[in-house]
UniProtKB/TrEMBL annotation:
<dbReference type="InterPro" id="IPR019888">
    <property type="entry name" value="Tscrpt_reg_AsnC-like"/>
</dbReference>
<keyword id="KW-0238">DNA-binding</keyword>
<dbReference type="GO" id="GO:0006355">
    <property type="term" value="P:regulation of DNA-templated transcription"/>
</dbReference>
<feature type="domain" description="HTH asnC-type">
    <location>
        <begin position="5"/>
        <end position="66"/>
    </location>
</feature>
<dbReference type="InterPro" id="IPR011991">
    <property type="entry name" value="ArsR-like_HTH"/>
</dbReference>
<dbReference type="InterPro" id="IPR019887">
    <property type="entry name" value="Tscrpt_reg_AsnC/Lrp_C"/>
</dbReference>
<dbReference type="Pfam" id="PF13412">
    <property type="entry name" value="HTH_24"/>
</dbReference>
<dbReference type="Pfam" id="PF01037">
    <property type="entry name" value="AsnC_trans_reg"/>
</dbReference>
<dbReference type="InterPro" id="IPR011008">
    <property type="entry name" value="Dimeric_a/b-barrel"/>
</dbReference>
<dbReference type="InterPro" id="IPR036388">
    <property type="entry name" value="WH-like_DNA-bd_sf"/>
</dbReference>
<dbReference type="GO" id="GO:0005829">
    <property type="term" value="C:cytosol"/>
</dbReference>
<keyword id="KW-0804">Transcription</keyword>
<dbReference type="InterPro" id="IPR019885">
    <property type="entry name" value="Tscrpt_reg_HTH_AsnC-type_CS"/>
</dbReference>
<dbReference type="GO" id="GO:0043565">
    <property type="term" value="F:sequence-specific DNA binding"/>
</dbReference>
<dbReference type="InterPro" id="IPR036390">
    <property type="entry name" value="WH_DNA-bd_sf"/>
</dbReference>
<keyword id="KW-0805">Transcription regulation</keyword>
<dbReference type="GO" id="GO:0043200">
    <property type="term" value="P:response to amino acid"/>
</dbReference>
Length: 156
């Protein structure tokens, strides 16, 4: 059975996305619930998989990752086992911030955060050039981070 967040859950989800370190008492004041009710609801949202994890948003440049690169990858073969191997290699790469299996002219869309072009070139050799199931890859260098984030719009 699918979990259906109610109005209070949706308000809590919006609040926790805005600031996951907001005290539960403050969240309760905002949404009209007691601190205990907020705590209980957040635990349920986490156990149901609605809240996947709590995280901090870090400025990549502040920690030395000044280059964002978007990569389109086309697989040689779409055999399930070979695609799964590609998926796993992308999941294991610490410089890949996001990986999407997509429809269209290519199979994967990757978002890399790297220190510099030299580091990216090293990863291209390891992930693409030495992999027999990578047919082609196209690199796009990001000039400016106009908008980033992982917030989900919460309809009330």
């Amino acid at each position: 059975m699918e979990f259906k967040p109610d109005r209070y859950d949706r308000m809590l989800l919006a609040a926790v996305q805005q600031n996951s370190q907001m005290p539960q008492s403050e969240m309760g004041e905002r949404v009209g619930l007691s601190t205990a009710a907020v705590n209980r609801r957040l635990r349920v949202l986490k156990s149901e998989g609605v809240i996947e994890r709590y995280a901090a948003c870090i400025n990549p440049k502040a920690v030395g990752y000044g280059l964002t690169i978007v990569v389109e990858v086309k697989a040689e073969s779409e055999r399930a086992d070979l695609l799964n191997e590609l998926r796993e290699s992308f999941k294991a790469c610490p410089q890949i911030q996001q990986c999407y299996y997509v429809t269209g002219e290519f199979d994967f869309l990757l978002i890399f955060l790297v220190r510099d072009m030299e580091q990216y070139v090293q990863w291209t050799h390891q992930l693409f050039l030495s992999n027999n199931n990578v047919k082609t890859f196209k690199t796009v260098v990001v000039m400016d981070r106009v908008k980033t984030g992982m917030q989900v719009t919460i309809d009330r």
